[in-house]
């Protein structure tokens, strides 16, 4: 899994805030880190599996070089979800491909960490996908 810094930098690139070779710094980075931690914390209500524990042991938030405690297969989902989450504050509109990656990633996270055995997985995945698709149309 990528570090918090790498995830944040890639989300900023997805929003075209920084160029491919650049990284966020200063206040913008601090804002993104705060949004990332808030996003991960807020998911505890939806991702109810005991396996969902995104922060390193003994921590309640990520620091710059910390690594979210999720499987590597969710890296792209975290990047896209953070980009969509951060877009309004950054006054950006995510590309449709970023919104679609966020939608798909959220659905995969919900299936992995939030669905009980008695839930209709197909119906739940479609509902979850619409959740993040609806955030893609930020308007000023």
Layout of strands and helices, then pairs:
Blueprint: H1 4-14, H2 26-42, H3 75-90, H4 96-113, H5 121-133
Helix pairs in contact: 1-2, 1-3, 3-4, 4-5
Walk me through this protein's architecture:
The chain is mainly alpha-helical and 140 residues long. It has one domain (4-136): Orthogonal Bundle (Hypothetical protein yqbg). The protein contains 5 helices and no strands. The chain has helices at residues 4-14, 26-42, 75-90, 96-113, 121-133. α1 crosses α2 (26-42) and α4 packs antiparallel against α5. The longest helix has 18 residues, at 96-113. The radius of gyration is 15 Å and the shape is globular. The N and C termini lie far apart (34 Å). Mean pLDDT is 82; it is low at 118-140.
Question: How much helical structure, as a percent, in the residues?
Answer: 40-55%
Mean pLDDT: 82
What is the count of helical runs? 5
Q: Please tell me the CATH architecture by its name.
A: Orthogonal Bundle
Radius of gyration: 15 Å
Q: Low-confidence runs (pLDDT<50, min 5 residues)?
A: 118-140
Distance between the termini: 34 Å
Strand coverage percent: under 5%
Helix-strand sequence: HHHHH
In the CATH hierarchy, what is the class?
A: Mainly Alpha
């Amino acid at each position: 899994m990528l570090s918090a810094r790498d995830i944040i930098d890639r989300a900023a690139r997805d929003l075209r805030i920084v160029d491919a070779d650049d990284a966020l710094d200063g206040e913008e980075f601090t804002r993104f880190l705060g949004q990332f931690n808030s996003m991960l914390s807020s998911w505890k209500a939806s991702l109810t599996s005991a396996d969902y524990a995104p922060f390193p042991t003994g921590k309640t938030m990520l620091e710059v070089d910390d690594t979210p405690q999720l499987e590597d297969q969710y890296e792209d989902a975290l990047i896209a979800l953070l980009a969509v989450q951060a877009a309004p504050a950054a006054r950006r509109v995510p590309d449709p491909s970023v919104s679609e990656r966020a939608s798909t990633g959220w659905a995969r996270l919900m299936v992995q960490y939030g669905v009980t055995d008695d839930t209709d997985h197909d119906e739940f995945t479609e509902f979850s996908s619409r959740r993040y698709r609806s955030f893609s149309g930020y308007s000023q």
